[in-house]
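anyone seen this seq b4? input:
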Amino acid sequence: MTGTHENPRTSRRNILFGTAAAGAALLGAGCTSNKSNDEADAGSGQANVADDRPGKHVTIGFAGPQADHGWLNAINEQAVRRAKKYKDVTLEATEGSNDNAQQVGQIETLINKKVDVLVILPADGKALTQVGLKAMRAGIPVVNLDRVFASQQAYRCWIGGDNYGMGLNAGRYIGEKLKGKKKAKVVELAGIDNLELTRERTKGFDAALKNYPNVEKVARQAAEFTVESGQSKMAQLLRAETKFDALWNHDDDQGVGAERAIEQAGRDDFLMVGGAGSRRVMDAIKADDSVIKATVLYPPTMAASAIDLARALGQGKGVGGLAEFEIPGSMTLYSAVVTKDNVEEYLPTGFK
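predicted toks r here
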């Protein structure tokens, strides 16, 4: 992959396993067979593995934060769409809330309904740890989606993005693009600084840049994952730094505002790398008529994979392609870099 030395097809397979966009499901595609274990073992070489055929019915409770952001909205859409694919799955979804107490109440309602499995993307992992523990103690396995609980006892499986790797791959791409330039300067438009995920993205970015002694990060501003904050913080960066060679923006949604500030300033003398993988940014990369040259994925398809994992848990199944009879305790998705060279392959995964 351009700037990261990754094989794009390998990367795509790594991030899209188990999602509708990939076609081939994580769980091969996530359901029990009507055959006995002996028959399954004889036919496939592995018993107790989930596949695409209807099996034991599973009721999955899904609780996430309020969909007030493009990526979060895509998370909800992926979960609902994936659940509808299966005739043996009923999805009980909450309205979603950014208020910790309200989200706890919504999850407790799902616990009282005695759903078979819970998929939870907490507004705040630490604050919702206790309700995860409550579900597990009630015998309801929890798939913890992305924002991790403070205790491993609060979930059976965690699946999410690689924030450190996201920064690492953004830094590698930029470093490769600038490695022939003397005294190159880069700036960073981060997300919400009190979130661990933001700090991890910055750590990864800084670690990658250390491999390029000619590249210096000269400025950083933290925005709030909103269009408005992206515009105001980017305007500050542009005023402070009259000349730089590359910008890494952590989030494609706040990037809408950043791009407005860049256009208003009349600047086109640097390259921009986005974060998360919105369809809008992928279209811009394909058009190749702006400063946007790449985006680093943080795939919302993880919600579809979480539904697959929950279904397998409810049916007591394992993951196709692995020797183990149980699903793993954690799964970290890969943060691929999308460029003009591979954007056609990734366009179906772009979220609105």
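The two ends are 24 Å apart (CA to CA). Residues 1-46 have pLDDT under 50 and may be disordered. kinda curious what u guys think
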